[in-house]
Every structure is written in structure tokens, then in C-alpha cells.
Design goal:
Layout lengths: L1 E6 L2 E6 L6 E8 L2 E11 L6 E8 L2 H38 L9
Length: 105
């Protein structure tokens, strides 16, 4: 049996027949995509169950910031060694002879 509750003016289906219900999803609220988590909590010395709902409106923004930071670190880890290789190979070629052949001397 599924019953729909109203989570912050959004429909969230909760299956009350399931002994331990857990749902992780995303909803759109006030133009912001939010993470939502619903979990069952059994009470001590009682047959009652509580359904805990958590909504995180900053979750997607945090994930995007972490991804951008990882991409920036990867780009720096690739670009800086390439620049160093470029300059040091040029410096090494000039030190060794700069492309002059033995017949030119």
C-alpha cells in the first residue's frame, strides 16, 4: 500500500507496508534542485515508526563545486608539466647544439 504525503508541497510516496522504508531522490523546490532522503526510524519500546525526512537544497551546488575543483586540479596537473617539458627540452636542445649538424662546422 502506497500513501502519498506532502513534502514541502511535493508528492513523496511512502510505502507504509514495508518494514524499513528508505528513499533517496531529488525534487525541485522554489527553482532549486534538492536532495531528499526519507528513512524509517523505529521507536524504543513501541510499535510506532517515525519517518524522518531530510532535504538538502545545497547538495547539487556542492557537488558541482567539488567537480569543478577536481577538473581544475587535473588540468593544472597536466598543463604545468607540459609547460616545463616544453621549456626544458628547448633549453636542452640549445645546450647540446641547437640543431647544427657535424658537417656545418
Amino acid at each position: 500500500m502506497q500513501i502519498t504525503c506532502n513534502c514541502m508541497e511535493q508528492s513523496c510516496a511512502i510505502d507504509y507496508e514495508e518494514p524499513y522504508f528508505q528513499r533517496r531522490d531529488r525534487i525541485r523546490q522554489d527553482g532549486v534542485t534538492c536532495f531528499i532522503d526519507i528513512s524509517t526510524l523505529y521507536t524504543y519500546r513501541s510499535e510506532s515508526r517515525l519517518y524522518i525526512t531530510t532535504i538538502d537544497p545545497g547538495g547539487f551546488r556542492n557537488i558541482q563545486n567539488i567537480l569543478l575543483l577536481c577538473i581544475a586540479v587535473l588540468l593544472l596537473a597536466l598543463v604545468i608539466p607540459l609547460i616545463m617539458i616544453h621549456f626544458f627540452t628547448g633549453y636542452f636542445v640549445e645546450r647540446v647544439g641547437g640543431g647544427t649538424s657535424a658537417g656545418d662546422a
